[in-house]
Structure formats: structure tokens, C-alpha cells
Design brief:
The chain is α+β, with helices and mostly antiparallel strands and 789 residues long. The chain is built from 30 helices and 20 strands. Strands 3, 4, 6, 8, 9, 11 and 14 form a 7-stranded antiparallel sheet that branches. Strands 5, 7, 10, 12 and 13 form a 5-stranded antiparallel sheet that branches. A two-stranded antiparallel sheet has the order 1-2.
Length: 789
């Protein structure tokens, strides 16, 4: 396997590629299991402290259970299966009292509880399993997202930094001739978007002849998602469009023939990046240059609109929020397709190296090397015939390798990756290509902290940058590392606070939220035309935009309040959505926050896009909604269903409500183990139909939104609808712990338990102390994890 070849350049003193957590002391084992120490139990203990029950429970287990299940639940010949699982201690106690031991006489409830508490803390629970097999901070390759971001920032570090600001729209220059002659320019302004229908008139009757005029729009376009974008221009006249490449048009219909009015071009863009864009439009009477003759002819209509089709979405006019009137430098990111990263435990991680991944990194390195050589003049800052070209190209290569490896080069490393490759090539361009290929194919680029038995300041810098940006450290981080100013929590937190202001931090959090809500893959929102005749692809795209605006304006606001995120009644609607959701707005109204259904809406839980995504084509789905709530928002583990599940069609029981059908179908004992948790949560959202509209009745019957949840501490909480559920999630220790753990693992790409038993409760305390500010939680996570050894 070629991976071995990648590691052959490591020094003999390189550490093994597994960073094991220190062996736990007896006191640490007690802390992990929740045993009360000299300072008492922790605030976030989610189950009864076993100090009082463990001896009794342990003795009872040894006397009554070990003969079948083994001294540590490992199993015996009588019952070979090990005692591990995902039930709570209170659920285990109920099961033991009801079913153990097999036969007519079962364990008394007074004994079942201490036995269950002992089993849970000794070897059954996920924490006990992790304690018995301690989690490790493992060697990890870059994820696909990290690879692309790292290459984009590596190339971008040799280009001028964009001076982007908060203004939105594109710079527009209006000319009274069909050509862009500055002497003919009569108007300049910033247009929020490009969507004009001039009819047979001109932009300004006083200064323009309606027979001929031209317009040029310039600036940058911000890509929200990573993937293939299709840009669309609709016009009856001549048009050219450039995106990210000023030398090659994405759309060229300057010499227009035929009657086509829609033109398309596709390009791969990296989410969260700005790309330079230029659109040129010209209206003229074809083949007639004489102004007097033009006036004798009828004035043709003229319109121009700039749209795009984002990955897996419909056509839409590029909105103002995605346009910037400042020119960004070109952004290179390899478009090579990669195999998807493993997400089996809820977040992307680079834990496997397959043949497909190996081949993809090589292809991407070749693609990048080709780009670097083609743009070497600009990247190295030296002309092809300059007398000092060789010297400057070598300096560029040295800096390229240093930035890719995230640390200064040793003499040995520079000799291998730079000097030797340039000398071995037949010309300078070939040498640069060899340097780029070898660097991007090196484990020093592809893997994290590969050469550090003990992480140094440069490792801390990389942990910060990959944690918050999924990319390389910037110049300021590397300077701080060189000055040994990343050694204390305060120093690291100060850098993290600076980095949070960078748009890349928002786009990383945005991707987390979309994954956490299980809509990052852009589900197909196809609804029954009979039930929802006005729901189409355009509405589905608008709903996606509505959710994205909600996330940005709630989570990325100054307060960044987790509680507001779950409790606000604001929904972002435009004119098209307002009509569908019963709000009085002009048909062409832009997106804006609207308070609707204040007694029933509850933050992100009831956003129409979420409700529509977790629903069937013709009705709600309490099961899908309940699974989202249980797994993602409350952190509960659910087993896959024992058999394929098909919902009962409404036609089979036309007089039943959806709730009644679900109760009937999941009543069997084999289903009720999980659905006893799922259904009562999902039922609280039953007032929202398959597209997230509020409803009062179904099949003539009133909607029942009562529900409940038994917390990990065994407390039963009852809800009367979405508002009750939202208030509970905003204040629940279970929900806080689940959110903190999932955000930690998404940012750090490691299991939180690998950082010790106190990491989660300490971060929960920090979250509460900072008024549940999500951005401050991100800072705390990185400040804590970046310094861990």
C-alpha cells in the first residue's frame, strides 16, 4: 500500500501514530463512574451517585446475577452475551424487576434498583464501556473539507488578502453605448442583485438611448455550500459572465444568434469562500451602428437576470447577501472528487485510509500542481525572464512547503522537499511541480500532529485553526507560535476569540448546525400535489433559505443564545412563502423576520424547513421528528428497528389521526422499547403538517400534542406542545450535555471522552456561566482541547 511510502521520509525518532490517553488512577476511575469524592458529586451527574448503592448492588449482583452474566458482565456459558447497552439505569431497573431472573419469580423492585445502578456504572453504560476501554486521541488524516480548505488557503496565502466589508451587492457601471468606453459611462452605483426588466425603455431616459446601452457588474460572489454551482443568465441580448477566472468566460453569448434567452455554465465552488465575478450586458440593434437609423426601428425589449442553482437546489436570483461590491482574489480549490468521510459516530472524521482516498489525494495534488505552475508568475511574484527568477521560485517553494507543514522547516526537510526536487527537474516549472506533488502527498500535510510525541506551539496553532476554520493556521497564529505565545489557556482563548470573527468560523458552525439538524445533505422535499398544490421546487429552495437566514441571524448574532435558538417564534419569509404560510406581505417582498404563531412556534424545532424535512409527502411524521429530538437534541442512543418499517397509509384507516396510526403500529413490545421514547417527543410537534404549517384538526378530530420525556436522571417531564418542549430543551441538562458533546466532537474531530472525564461537565459549566452563548462555547472548547497532551 502506498501509505507506507508516504511515511518512509519520517525520521527514526518519529513517534507512533497513536496518542494514548494516560492510564487512569483509581481516583480518576471513581470520578468517571460518578462515585462521590471528598468534594461531593459533580453538578452534572446524570444518575444517582453509586456510593451508597454500589456495595449493596455489587453484592446482590455477585449473589444473584454473576452465575449467568459473569463477574463483570462478560457473559458465561449459560448466557454468552455481554451486558452492555444503551438503556438508562432506571430502565434497567424496571427490566430487571419485570423479567429477571427468567421464571415465575422475579427480582424485587427494592433489589432491582441497586443491582441496575451497579451494572450501569460498572460495565453497562457507554461511559463505563469507555472507561474500561479508554478512548484515545487518535492520529487523524485531514477530512475532505479540511483538505480542500487547506489547499485553498495555502494557495491564497500567496495572493493579496481581500478587503471585503459589510456592504452587499455588485458595483454597476452603466454606459450609453454598447461598448464599455469610459467616456460613455454615465452612471455608477451598487445594485443589490441583478434582476431588471427594462421593457422598451432605458435605465434612465435622460441619459440613455433605449436602442443601445450596456452595463457591467463587478464584485464577488459568496458560495454558501461546497459543490457544483450552475450560473444562469436570462436575457434577450448579448452577455458574458466570468466567475473566479478573469481570462476565461463561464458564459459567453456576446455574439448572440438565435432566440435563446437563457444561458448556463457550471463551476465547482468551495463553501464559505468569495469568488470574483463580472457580468457584462449589451443591448443594441443588431447590425445597425448608425444612431439615426436605429431610431427608425422599433425598440426591442430588454431584461437581464443573474441566477444560480446551488448544489441540490432550484434556480434563484443570486441574493444580495451573497454578493459583495469588492473584488476578491481568485480562489483555487481542487475539484477532484473524494470518497466521503466516515460519519458513523455523528461527525466527519479522517480515521480511514482507503485506496480511493489515496488516489483522490494524488489526483488533487496533480490538479493543484498544474494550477501552481500555470499561475507561478503571480504566486511567486517574478516574471518568466527575470534574472533572479530561480532564486525567487526557490523561495516560493520553501514558503509553500513551510505553510503546508504548518511549521518552520528543518535543514533536512528543506533539502528533501525543495532543494533536491528542484535540482532533479529538467526545468524550473517541472521542479515546482515536483515540490508541490511531494508536499501535498506527504503525511506532514495530510495528517495532524504526526511528528509530535508532545504537542508544541505549532501543534496548538494547528488545533486552533483546524478546530475553528477546518484549515491551516494564518500568519498571526504562526507568529504567536514562534514567539511561544500559545502556552496558556488565556493566550489560546485570545487567539480563538480573534479567529471567531473570521467568516470561516461561521461557515464551520453553520455546517455543524446543518449536520446536527440532519439537513446537511439537502433532503428532497417533494410533497403531495393533491394535499399541497402550491408546494414546488421554488418553495423548497425558499424554505432552505429561510432556515439558513434563521441560523445566521440567531446563532451568529451578538448574543448567540442557545435558548433563543430554541424558543424564538421568528421565521424568515419572503413574499412567496408568506402567501403559503398565511402572512400578509407583498408578493415580491424580500426575506425578513416575521413572528408567526407565537403560541406554538418554538425556535429551530418548528422552522418550516425542519418540519417539512421530517415529514412524509402527505402528512407529518412523529417518528422522524421524535428520532431527531431523541438522538440529536437529547443525546440518546437508539437502536435500528428490528425489521423494515413502512408507515400505515392513511387510506387504510381513514378516520384515524396520524398519532393514532403511529400508536397502533408501534404498540408491539419489540417496537415499544425505542418508540416509548421517540413517540412522546414527536407527538409534541403534531400541530405542524407536512410543510410546517399550523393546523388545528386532522380528519375532523382535534390535534393532540401532549407528550413526555423521561430524563437520564429518571424524572418524567410532560409537554403540551412545541412551546413546552422548546422551553425544556433550552434549560435541560440532557440537552445541554448533548449539544456540548456534539459540538466538541465536530470541531475537534475526536471523542470528548478521550480528553478525560471532566471535559464535558467543565464545558457545560462554562456554557452556563457564559449565558449559553454558542460562540463563547466554541472558544472554550478550543481553549481547553488545544493544550491537551
Amino acid at each position: 500500500m502506498r501509505l507506507r511510502g508516504r511515511f518512509q521520509h519520517m525520521t527514526p525518532t518519529s513517534p507512533t501514530f497513536q496518542l494514548a490517553a494516560p492510564a487512569a488512577s483509581f481516583a480518576l476511575l471513581l470520578a468517571i463512574s460518578g462515585v462521590t469524592g471528598p468534594h461531593g458529586p459533580t453538578k452534572h451527574t446524570a444518575r444517582p451517585a453509586p456510593a451508597a448503592t454500589a456495595p449493596n448492588g455489587g453484592k446482590l449482583y455477585a449473589q444473584q446475577c454473576a452465575v449467568c452474566h459473569g463477574a463483570r458482565g462478560e457473559g458465561t456459558k449459560r448466557y454468552a452475551k455481554s451486558l452492555t447497552g444503551d438503556k438508562l439505569a432506571v430502565e434497567l431497573a424496571k427490566f430487571i424487576a419485570k423479567s429477571m431472573p427468567p421464571g415465575p419469580k422475579h427480582c424485587p423492585a427494592a433489589e432491582a434498583k441497586p443491582i441496575a445502578d451497579y451494572i450501569y456504572d460498572a460495565f453497562y453504560s457507554p461511559i463505563a464501556q469507555a472507561r474500561n476501554r479508554p478512548a484515545r486521541i487518535s492520529l487523524s488524516r485531514l477530512t475532505v473539507r479540511q483538505y480542500r480548505n487547506a489547499v485553498a488557503d495555502l494557495i491564497g496565502s500567496f495572493q493579496p488578502a481581500p478587503a471585503l466589508d459589510a456592504k452587499r451587492g455588485l458595483r454597476a457601471e452603466y454606459f450609453r453605448a454598447r461598448r464599455f468606453n469610459n467616456g460613455e459611462r454615465v452612471m455608477q452605483r451598487v445594485d443589490p442583485s441583478v434582476q431588471f426588466d427594462f421593457g422598451t425603455a432605458a435605465p434612465d431616459a435622460e441619459h440613455f438611448d433605449p436602442h443601445q446601452f450596456s452595463i457591467r457588474w463587478q464584485g464577488s460572489v459568496l458560495a454558501p455550500d461546497t459543490g457544483d454551482y450552475e450560473f444562469v443568465v436570462r436575457t434577450e441580448h448579448s452577455v458574458r459572465l466570468w466567475v473566479d477566472d478573469e481570462k476565461k468566460e463561464l458564459i459567453d453569448r456576446w455574439v448572440k444568434s438565435g432566440t435563446d434567452t437563457e444561458f448556463r455554465g457550471s463551476i465547482f465552488l468551495l463553501g464559505g469562500r468569495e469568488y470574483p465575478i463580472r457580468l457584462e450586458f449589451s443591448k443594441s440593434t443588431q447590425g445597425v451602428d448608425d444612431t439615426a437609423k436605429q431610431k427608425d426601428r422599433p425598440v426591442p425589449r430588454a431584461s437581464i437576470a443573474l441566477l444560480w442553482r446551488r448544489p441540490k437546489q432550484g434556480d434563484e436570483v443570486i441574493p444580495s447577501r451573497c454578493l459583495v461590491p469588492v473584488d476578491a482574489p481568485t480562489t483555487f480549490a481542487p475539484a477532484t472528487p473524494f470518497p466521503p468521510d466516515d460519519r458513523s459516530i455523528g461527525y466527519e472524521r479522517g480515521n480511514s485510509v482507503s485506496k480511493e482516498w489515496d488516489e483522490a489525494t494524488t489526483s488533487a495534488a496533480l490538479e493543484t500542481a498544474g494550477y501552481v505552475v500555470a499561475h507561478l508568475r503571480d504566486l511567486a511574484g517574478v516574471g518568466d525572464s527575470a534574472p533572479d527568477r530561480a532564486e525567487k521560485v526557490q523561495a516560493f517553494c520553501r514558503k509553500f512547503v513551510e505553510r503546508a507543514f504548518r511549521r518552520p522547516l528543518t535543514a533536512e526537510t528543506e533539502q528533501f522537499y525543495v532543494t533536491r526536487q528542484l535540482l532533479a527537474a529538467h526545468d524550473l516549472n517541472a521542479g515546482v511541480k515536483r515540490v508541490v506533488l511531494l508536499t501535498l502527498d506527504s503525511p506532514r500535510f495530510l495528517y495532524r500532529e504526526i511528528d509530535s510525541a508532545n504537542p508544541d506551539a505549532y501543534d496548538v496553532a494547528s488545533r486552533l485553526s483546524f478546530g475553528l476554520w477546518d484549515s491551516l493556521p494564518d500568519e498571526e497564529l504562526l507568529k504567536a507560535a514562534a514567539a511561544n505565545q500559545l502556552t496558556t489557556r488565556e493566550q489560546v482563548a485570545n487567539q480563538a476569540e480573534r479567529m471567531i470573527a473570521d467568516p470561516r468560523a461561521w461557515y464551520k458552525l453553520r455546517e455543524f448546525l446543518l449536520q446536527w439538524l440532519k439537513v446537511d445533505q439537502v433532503p428532497d422535499l417533494e410533497k403531495s400535489k393533491k394535499e399541497y398544490p402550491n408546494f414546488d421546487e421554488a418553495v423548497a429552495s425558499d424554505l432552505r433559505t429561510s432556515l439558513e437566514l434563521f441560523l445566521e441571524n440567531t446563532v451568529w448574532s451578538g448574543r448567540s443564545d442557545y435558548r433563543e435558538f430554541l424558543e424564538t417564534d421568528k421565521v424568515y419569509l419572503n413574499g412567496r412563502l408568506a402567501k403559503l404560510y398565511g402572512v400578509n406581505m407583498p408578493p415580491n417582498a424580500p426575506f425578513q423576520p416575521v413572528e408567526i404563531d407565537p403560541a406554538d412556534r418554538s425556535g429551530v424545532l418548528t422552522q418550516p424547513y425542519i418540519m417539512a424535512s421530517f415529514a412524509y409527502a402527505d402528512n407529518s411524521s412523529p417518528i422522524h421528528r421524535g428520532v431527531l429530538l431523541a438522538r440529536n437534541m437529547l443525546g440518546r442512543t437508539l437502536k435500528p428497528p428490528p425489521a423494515a418499517f413502512a408507515p400505515l397509509p392513511a387510506s387504510s384507516h381513514p378516520n384515524m389521526t396520524q398519532r393514532e396510526r403511529i400508536v397502533m403500529q408501534t404498540k408491539p413490545a419489540m417496537c415499544n422499547g425505542c418508540h416509548g421514547l421517540i413517540n412522546p417527543l414527536g407527538f409534541t410537534l403534531e400541530r405542524f403538517d407536512a410543510i410546517g404549517r399550523l393546523r388545528d384538526r386532522e380528519n375532523g378530530q382535534p390535534i393532540d400534542t401532549s407528550g413526555s420525556y423521561e430524563s437520564t436522571s429518571g424524572k418524567l417531564v410532560k409537554f403540551s406542545g412545541a412551546r413546552d418542549l422548546g422551553k425544556y430543551l433550552a434549560t435541560s441538562d440532557d440537552a445541554h450535555a448533548a449539544f456540548v458533546e456534539k459540538l466538541f466532537q465536530y470541531l475537534v474531530k475526536q471523542p470528548i471522552r478521550a480528553y478525560g472525564p471532566k471535559e464535558l461537565p467543565d464545558l457545560e459549566d462554562s456554557f452556563a456561566a457564559n449565558e449559553y452563548n454558542i460562540k463563547k462555547l466554541m472558544v472554550a472548547i478550543l481553549a481547553e482541547s488545544a493544550l491537551k497532551r
